[in-house]
Specification:
By secondary structure, the chain is an alpha+beta fold. The protein contains 30 helices and 36 strands. Helix 23 packs antiparallel against helix 24. It is flat.
Length: about 950
């Protein structure tokens, strides 16, 4: 970071200090019994070897606000969480063990597989813990919660039993997204964002109209309804075709691909109008409602299942049919899609289920039986072509859903799954979540997975077909009649062997084999981690959480699952404030891919750039905007922090030379020079503003305000006051300067300590205790204060001293600095360096400018301006006549076409100043010119250089006089 400063080296030194001094334990002891601040950590998935840089964003937010509250004396739990179960762990362990299917897992042994999953979780949790410590995150790392714990599982059981008692727990026979590799259904929320660009075989298929009912005339023409699909494997399960009743449909005569005989087909009129159908002849146009009820011949009626199930094969209405893709006629297979299934239920049609849980065709589907559904597209196309049913075959690239974990293409399959119905609870969720609109779209929650390492659903059936739910581990043990001696933990396979007594008839009862959705695991933590079941007083102390924060994707995941359980158990939301943040991309805007060249893991970034650089980078951003991360942008952050570091280096260097004693009696603030009082005023305004921002969980405002302050501290205060440091004749004035800068630095490090804990601790230890700086190797305080806290993070967060905030002084200094900046611009325009003395600078503030009058009669500020600009006099005027000339030129692109031959006359009038201003316009030669039609600038009159900004103009007398 400059001056030989190696931030990673400093951070390791601070980590050693914290460990040696047990700084975190001391903080908890100090705050014990203080006011409560409850934060609940969203569990990080314990399935990684190294955190990505994106993990650092959220974990820094968590650490920032816990540290901020701790510096205000709040007692906290400091509990980290690990998400430990489900497909994200299972799939990775399968890869490690070279297992490729559920059959492989069962052959290997569910017990050994579960042990391998637990071992992976524990390894990952250990790595994440070490890397989080490297980030500077303070947590009680010995008290992390794990969602695989029996305690967590028991709390979920309790909530599920309540759902059952309320009648919300049902077995649903529905079409669900299904991963054939993982052998399980997936929930709607798991599919969000789980899409991949794929190219599939798309088919345009003929569905010949039958002569039944109103189809006689069309059948006589041998007309076909034309439908399009990108999933050919679903065609053998076709039952219906759907049209939109209000769309227009065209009956056309057209040549099919490879055909020599024209035929009649029906398709959407808008589709017919596209270039793909340029060779078609329009015969008639009808509304979709005119097609309703038509009967047709299915594409695979000859298969055994088609003969035994008697599909309806009719045209139905569906308002979701569109006309942008396909043909405007949708093939409906209720056994192969969620929307199709709902339509089939509405129409009372048969449901043909073509595939098993491995996505292979089942019996009844003839030559397709035993074939993998996703591999038969070309075979189906060839079969349809051979029977005259294929109209066209086209490769189609689109975004298609994949398994969120293994990334394989999913299918839709009808089966029995466990659901929590949402109709009754949804209004309560909306009320608890301040009527969030997205809750309207949350359907029934599919909570079951046909897997192994996960929450074992506590659903039991007895031999007499009674169904019941076990509500806790305690209840399990009370009802168990055998198998407890082998129960090592509440997981498969050990729990599967426990037989319990039916509460209705005492018959033996066994658990269903399904495991639960992983979001059950995380959603219960506001209760399991606070011991809802066994220590209700403890739970009441810490519930609800004041604050939680996670990535924006968790709105429909962790936030939702927490909200659900909390409403079920308490009727209210489990959190008061939620901070969501966006996604992180590389510097080119591309997604990070762990296997790609652009991936940056956090340990690498920490050792190359420093954790505090990463933390500050994130904290100065808007959490609602996507982030581009890379070493290029980190270097810019380093540059900004170097300004702060150089100010610190300046202070320690001169304070050491001057043997400054911070415990010496203070020069009263009111007796210090104007610039000292200005700095103290801006310092305490900063304290006020930063606290206000952090109280609103707005780290961006806090960070940017601090950056602006330390920039002013360096480029204005220190630069203006260098002569007051190091052996000046006026010792009292020098002491005031040292004390002012010392207060600014020690206050500033406490302000940014929650955001940059390492840099803050490093500077604080040196300034507060007088340790020799291991980097600068210079500064040593003469008398350290024994009452100072041992760590900056034990110190009280700064409180603004209102009596030191002087609005008028800050306004006057701002005015002076504005004049200085414009004066420098004027010198640059005149090509006259500052070391060349000039006679005078004139400043004119506009009548409505906020700084009008700020410099009137201010000799001390005038002296600063004159010294900065090396002018002998500063004059403040009300008007700029005689100094500045306004130059107006026509904006030719705008005025040329409008004025035509009058343009030269108007241009001359503007150049000669023959115009007048009327409000916001300029009138010349009778033409009223708008602001966007002219270019306005200002030039100095002879002997003057001029610079202007909104509300202020300065004129520099450039007459050179003898020195």
């Amino acid at each position: 970071m400059g001056s030989g400063f190696d931030l990673p080296e400093v951070e390791h030194g601070v980590l050693d200090l914290w460990e040696r001094e047990r700084s975190f334990d001391a903080l908890r002891k100090k705050n014990a019994g203080g006011p409560r601040y409850s934060f609940i950590d969203g569990p990080i998935t314990a399935n990684i070897e190294a955190m990505g840089v994106h993990h650092a964003w959220g974990r820094t937010y968590k650490d920032l606000y816990q540290r901020y509250k701790a510096m205000q004396g709040f007692d906290q739990r400091w509990q980290n969480g690990f998400d430990c179960q489900g497909l994200w762990v299972e799939v990775q362990v399968e890869r490690e063990l070279n297992l490729n299917s559920k059959r492989d897992i069962e052959t290997y042994g569910i017990d050994k597989f579960s042990r391998a999953c637990r071992a992976r979780v524990d390894r990952s949790a250990d790595a994440i813990t070490k890397q989080s410590i490297r980030l500077g995150q303070w947590m009680d790392w010995d008290d992390s919660y794990y969602t695989y714990s029996d305690n967590n599982i028991s709390h979920i059981w309790n909530a599920l039993k309540i759902c059952h008692d309320k009648g919300w727990l049902v077995v649903g026979h529905r079409a669900m997204p299904w991963c054939a590799r993982c052998g399980t259904a997936l929930a709607e929320h798991e599919m969000t964002g789980s899409y991949k660009e794929m190219t599939h075989t798309s088919l345009y298929v003929r569905f010949p109209v039958l002569s039944e009912g109103k189809g006689a005339a069309l059948a006589k023409e041998r007309a076909s309804l034309l439908a399009w699909t990108t999933t050919p494997w679903t065609l053998p399960a076709n039952v219906m075709l759907a049209v939109h009743p209000d769309l227009d449909y065209a009956k056309v005569r057209v040549l099919a691909d490879g055909s020599t005989e024209p035929e009649v087909v029906i398709l959407g009129a808008k589709v017919y109008g596209s270039s793909k159908w340029h060779n078609a002849e329009l015969l008639a146009t009808v509304k979709g409602r005119d097609l309703l009820g038509l009967r047709y011949s299915g594409p695979f009626d000859e298969l055994p299942v088609g003969k035994t199930s008697s599909p309806a094969h009719k045209v139905i209405e569906w308002d979701e049919v569109g006309e942008e893709e396909g043909t405007g006629i949708v093939h409906i297979a209720p056994g192969c899609g969620a929307e199709d299934f709902a339509l089939g239920k509405r129409e009372g049609s048969p449901v043909l289920i073509p595939i098993d849980e491995t996505a292979h065709f089942v019996g009844g589907f003839g030559w397709l039986e035993g074939k993998e559904a996703r591999d038969v597209a070309q075979e189906i196309a060839d079969d349809l072509r051979s029977r005259g049913r294929l109209f066209r075959q086209v490769p189609y690239t689109h975004s298609y859903p994949v398994c969120w974990r293994c990334k394989e293409e999913i299918v839709f399959r009808v089966g029995d799954e466990w659901f929590i119905t949402m109709d009754e609870v949804r209004p309560k969720l909306k009320e608890a979540a301040a009527k969030e609109n997205w809750l309207d779209n949350m359907g029934d929650w599919n909570i079951s997975r046909k897997r192994y390492w996960g929450l074992p659903l506590p659903f039991y059936n007895c031999t007499n077909k009674h169904f019941f739910v076990i509500g806790s581990e305690k209840e399990l043990r009370e009802r168990a009649v055998s198998g407890l001696e082998q129960l090592q933990e509440l997981h498969r396979p050990w729990l599967d062997n426990v037989i319990v007594a039916c509460p209705t008839c005492k018959a033996e009862s066994r658990r269903v084999r399904e495991t639960g959705d992983v979001w059950l695991d995380a959603g219960i933590v506001p209760f399991s981690t606070l011991h809802w079941l066994d220590d209700r007083d403890h739970w009441k102390k810490w519930f609800p959480a004041e604050f939680i924060t996670e990535n924006v994707e968790q709105i429909r995941l962790w936030y939702y699952s927490q909200l659900f359980f909390s409403v079920v158990l308490t009727g209210r939301a489990p959190y008061d404030t939620v901070l969501s943040y966006e996604f992180v991309y590389d510097e080119n805007g591309e997604e990070f891919h762990k296997s790609g060249e652009n991936f940056i893991d956090f340990p690498q970034a920490a050792e190359r750039a420093g954790s505090d650089i990463v933390r500050w980078f994130y904290m100065r951003l808007n959490p609602g905007e996507k982030v581009l991360f890379g070493y290029g942008v980190l270097s810019e952050v380093k540059r900004k922090l170097l300004v702060l570091w150089n100010t610190y280096a300046f202070f320690v260097t001169y304070a050491n030379l001057d043997r400054f004693d911070p415990t010496a009696p203070q020069v009263p603030a009111k007796e210090r020079p104007l610039i000292d009082r200005w700095l103290l005023s801006t310092l305490h305004r900063l304290v006020r503003d930063v606290r206000a921002a952090l109280d609103q969980y707005d780290s961006q405002t806090a960070a940017l305000r601090m950056e602006a302050f330390w920039d002013d501290l360096s480029t204005w205060y220190v630069r203006r006051n260098r002569s007051r440091f190091w052996k000046t004749k006026d010792e009292r004035d020098s002491l005031a300067a040292y004390q002012t800068l010392y207060e600014a630095l020690t206050t500033l490090v406490r302000l940014f300590a929650p955001l940059m804990p390492f840099v803050a601790e490093h500077i604080y230890q040196n300034l507060a205790w007088g340790d020799t700086d291991p980097v600068l190797k210079t500064w040593r305080v003469q008398h350290s204060d024994p009452d100072r806290p041992a760590s900056v993070h034990h110190a009280e967060y700064p409180i603004a001293r209102a009596e030191l905030i002087d609005d008028e002084l800050e306004r006057r200094m701002r005015a002076a600095r504005r004049v200085v900046e414009l004066g420098r611009a004027a010198r640059s325009q005149a090509k006259t360096k500052v070391r060349t003395p000039l006679p005078k600078l004139v400043a004119v503030f506009d009548e409505g400018d906020r700084d009008k009058g700020a410099l009137d009669g201010q000799d001390a500020l005038a002296a600063i301006v004159k010294d900065e600009l090396n002018v002998k006099a500063l004059e403040i005027r009300d008007r700029a006549e005689g100094l500045v000339r306004e130059v107006v030129k026509p904006e030719l692109k705008s005025l040329g076409p409008r004025l035509g031959k009058d343009l030269p006359r108007v241009r001359a009038a503007l150049a000669e100043g023959r115009y007048e201003r009327r409000g916001g316009t300029i009138v010349a030669e009778g033409f009223e010119l708008q602001p966007n039609e002219v270019l306005v600038s200002h030039e100095g009159e002879a002997g003057h250089a001029v610079a202007r900004e909104s509300g202020l103009v300065v004129a520099l007398d450039t007459t050179l006089t003898p020195q």
